[in-house]
Specification:
The protein is α+β, with helices and mostly antiparallel strands. The protein has three domains: 215 residues, Spore Coat Polysaccharide Biosynthesis Protein SpsA, Chain A, CATH 3.90.550; 102 residues, Phosphorylase Kinase, domain 1, CATH 3.30.200; 234 residues, Aminoglycoside 3'-phosphotransferase, Chain: A, domain 2 (Alpha-Beta Complex), CATH 3.90.1200.10. Strands 1, 4, 5, 6, 8, 9, 10, 11 and 12 form a nine-stranded mixed sheet that branches. Strands 14-15-16-18-17 form a five-stranded antiparallel sheet, with helices on both faces. Helix 10 packs antiparallel against helix 11 and helix 10 packs across helix 14. It is elongated, with a radius of gyration of 30 Å. The mean pLDDT is 94.
Length: 562
């Protein structure tokens, strides 16, 4: 048996993702779908495969060149797409006297292709199409005897009481004489060939399949479904190898500021968390890549982060240890005793120091998806300008240019870096990114991590508007952090606290920018309730500076709370 894999399409329904990767190379559990299709054909004793190509054909050709399948696998480039029938005609020189198989490159299935081929050999009709019941695609009319009579939902099926409509799986076997019936050098659908055969009383046979797995990955939703259905059971097996597998149920969880989607997966008494970053939109490092790489790096360094059991970097899915639903925000807001509250934060600060200093060991900057370090450009763009455009201009609708406050922003960026105690920096170390499970703290949402000042994460923790930690507690805890650091390194208290104050300001600008953007642009209005506390915090830390520092920013901040 020889086979043709149809792989020339543009993948229009999968845009924009097919702008950088052809649909046949979309991976399922890390394996390109094209590779799986070729291996499935080889299991069916296929002796030669040709793949028609057009869109991003060089990627497909390069992929095939790098493989060693042990049988002939070639590509046939179509300068202009010829359609399914045209592709068959264009590869006429490849076929021998035996029937050949044609299979779509965008289907994921466990249908036994050897059984399909042997079924075709067992009858005398010129073509066999593999059909199944898949409601949204059911448009092929089939008689009770298993012969195809039409290919549209509107087709009238003779003796309709005995007949039905089913869906084409994208798998077919064709006798070697049929390509002679297809016109040369033009776009032609194989469906038109079958219609002509039926009109000429040459019957087209249906092989109706049940109890199988089949997915078309032609849309983002269908691709995600296919990845999930393969990956989720595997994730549970890795996480709970001693537990029997069972049906997996999905519960959507409430997200925060990002566009990622969170779900809790349950199988029996076991649970996992699925975080879906979305299909990657480029071939360079993406957020999911950083999430996986940094998460595993921190886990290796003994930092309390969730275990990543399985991930699929192309689809953006990661299956994590379930840490429950208790955030630090919930715990602190229920803790009214100051001493108990301070004790909680002291434990967290010790873990923060551990994360900063252990996390910097062997940290590879290539793991980061934005910038490798917390630097001047990042502060100016992602914090200062973000505050100006998203909060002042956008949320408050103030007509204020960057140039108006540029000198203050430049000064603040330089000062935040001048007194830095550098290490691994989480960059969003706030109460909703700290979980409590069985009395232990865990850190999540570390994908924005990079090298940077420990004081920034400390400020993120202490000025967090979600908990409104009293300012006197913030100062006490900043002193505590210094004392714990002094046990590990030679450090000047005045310089450390200066670095903390400046980082508290840059973080505060970022918070207000984010709250303004999320509430106004993303429609997440619940963030608005935290803006007053963030504005109050900005003014507090500005007032702790010398009189001649950041005069324009001080004036602006004062107008926010008036």
């Amino acid at each position: 048996m020889k086979a043709l894999i149809l792989a020339a399409g543009f993948g229009t329904r999968l845009l924009p993702f097919t702008n950088h990767t052809p649909k046949p190379l979309f991976p399922i559990s890390g394996q390109p779908l094209l590779d799986k299709t070729i291996l499935d054909l080889m299991k069916a004793d296929c002796t030669g495969i040709v793949i028609n190509t057009h869109h991003l054909h060089l990627q497909i050709e390069e992929f095939i060149r790098k493989q060693n399948y042990g049988i002939s696998v070639t590509t046939r480039y179509e300068p202009e797409i010829l359609g399914t029938g045209g592709a068959i005609k264009n590869t006429s020189d490849f076929w021998d006297e035996q029937p050949f198989m044609v299979i779509n490159s965008d289907i994921l299935t466990d249908i036994d292709l050897k059984d399909v081929y042997e079924y075709h050999l067992g009858h005398t009709h010129p073509a066999t199409l593999v059909l199944h019941d898949f409601q949204i695609f059911n448009n092929v009319s089939v008689t009770g005897e298993g012969f195809i009579t039409g290919f549209d939902k509107s087709d009238i099926v003779p003796d309709s009481k005995a007949n039905t409509k089913l869906a084409f799986t994208g798998i077919q076997v064709i006798d070697s004489d049929l390509p002679t019936l297809i016109p040369d050098n033009c776009f032609y659908s194989v469906i038109d060939l079958y219609r002509n055969l039926i009109s000429a009383n040459r019957k087209v046979k249906a092989l109706i399949i049940t109890d199988h797995f089949w997915r078309d990955i032609g849309t983002p939703e269908a691709y995600n479904d296919a990845v999930f259905e393969k990956a989720a059971p595997e994730a549970f097996k890795k996480a709970f190898p001693e537990s029997a597998s069972g049906q997996i149920t999905i519960t959507k969880l409430k997200g925060d500021g990002s566009d990622r989607k969170w779900h809790r997966l349950s199988s029996g008494e076991q649970t996992l968390i699925l975080v879906d970053h979305g299909i990657r939109d480029n071939t360079s490092i993406c957020e999911v890549d950083s999430f996986i790489a940094i998460g595993r790096h921190l886990k290796k360094k003994g930092i309390p982060v969730p275990k990543i059991h399985l991930h699929d970097a192309f689809s953006g899915m990661a299956f994590l240890e379930d840490l429950g639903d208790l955030h630090l925000q919930d715990l602190v807001n229920k803790t009214h005793n100051k001493n108990e509250r301070i004790d909680i934060y002291r434990k967290l600060i010790e873990l923060l120091i551990q994360m900063s200093q252990n996390g910097k060991q062997n940290f590879n900057p290539s793991m980061t998806f934005q910038t490798p370090a917390y630097d001047r450009e990042l502060i100016l763009e992602k914090e200062c300008r973000y505050f100006q455009t998203a909060f002042l201009n956008g949320y408050l609708e103030k007509k204020l240019s960057f140039e108006t406050v540029a000198d203050d922003f430049f000064y603040l960026a330089d000062m935040a870096l001048a007194y830095a105690v550098n290490g691994f920096m989480h960059r969003d170390f706030q109460s909703r990114n700290i979980m409590i499970k069985k009395g232990r703290f865990y850190f999540i949402d570390f994908q924005g991590g990079r090298m940077g000042p420990l004081q920034y994460d400390l400020a993120s923790l202490l000025i967090d508007p979600y908990v409104e930690l009293p300012f006197e507690d913030q100062m006490e805890l900043a002193d505590f952090c210094f004392e714990k650091l002094k046990e590990k390194m030679t450090i000047d208290k005045e310089k450390f606290l200066k670095g903390y104050h400046y980082c508290a300001l840059t973080r505060n600008l970022q918070i207000l920018g984010a709250f303004g953007f999320l509430s106004r642009v993303k429609g997440k209005k619940w963030f608005e309730q935290y803006i007053p506390q963030a504005a109050k915090s900005l003014n507090y830390y500005l007032k702790k500076l010398e009189n001649n520092e950041l005069p324009v920013l001080k004036s602006i901040a004062q107008t926010i709370i008036e």
